[in-house]
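Thread: sanity check for a docking pose with magnesium ion

Original post by kr_44:
Hi all, I'm comparing my docking run against an independent structure prediction. Below are the sequence and the ligand SMILES. Could someone generate the full complex and paste the structure tokens? I mainly care about where the ligand ends up relative to the chain.
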Amino acid sequence: MFSHHTRHPLEKIVIIPTYNEKDNIEAIIDAVMQMESGYHILIIDDGSPDGTATIVKTLFPKYPGQLFLEERRGKLGLGTAYIHGFKWAIERGYQYIFEMDADFSHNPADLENLFEACSGGADVAVGSRYVKGGAIENWPANRVWLSKGASLYTRIITWMPVNDPTAGFVCYRREVLESINLDKIHFVGYAFQIEMKFAAWKLGFIIKEVPITFKDRKLGVSKMNKGIVKEGILGVLRLRWNSMFKNYRNQVAQKKFGPGNLFQHRELIREN
Ligand SMILES: Nc1nc2c(ncn2[C@@H]2O[C@H](COP(=O)(O)OP(=O)(O)OP(=O)(O)O)[C@@H](O)[C@H]2O)c(=O)[nH]1
Ligand SMILES: [Mg+2]
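Reply from moderator J.T.:
Ran it for you. Here is the predicted complex with magnesium ion included:
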């Protein structure tokens, strides 16, 4: 019954950062584990006072060798949680590394579409609200406009050809995360999502957007705040600035690959 897990034990892992997600965490883990093709899950919990991590631990016996938890001491931000998870997943040899929220804004069934895009030639698959077939359900108008505004702003400043640059539902081929010097990624909120895509794009990787329907969270509370918006506005300017006067590719590439042989490295990836 679980043969697919043993056949590809280290193929796909979904990283889910959590802060106070006790009402969602068990259901989201169950939903991902129910997917036919077999995903592992890594939860990065930042010492949630509501006991999210304790709930994850009670699920270990149900999903042996498939469910993992990294606990950090305090709320250190979404960006550093993902960086921690990326390093963890690369070290263990996972081939497809996913980002997903815990709050059911992202439909676990869409993991398959992201995976298909990446196994079919893309290096990064982005679950996108702003391509044909994408949608947002139940978000208040002000959140929709903030998000659309952020996307437009990012496109105007960076010229990056991604319609949903703040999207947090993403699949990366491991080569992408290996090629980026993750210690150079500094943003923590929406700017983190933009920065990761920007770095992948600047390094020449192929980004494909896959339409998704994004739903507002039903349970738990949002961690969105003014600081995250401010970081986004200034962060995008900084990305553009850094890429104008200094070689951004050199700055963000993992030293062992770049800068001269990075594209060579990328050609090797593409041939595989
Ligand atoms: N580990 C960790 N996870 C976080 C942190 N901030 C947010 N998260 C998680 O990151 C995911 C996205 O955060 P959300 O609060 O849903 O942010 P959002 O989607 O912009 O806001 P809403 O959907 O309106 O709640 C959720 O799974 C959160 O629990 C953090 O500082 N550390
Ligand atoms: Mg959310």
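The chain has a mean pLDDT of 91. Hope that helps with the comparison, let us know if your pose agrees.
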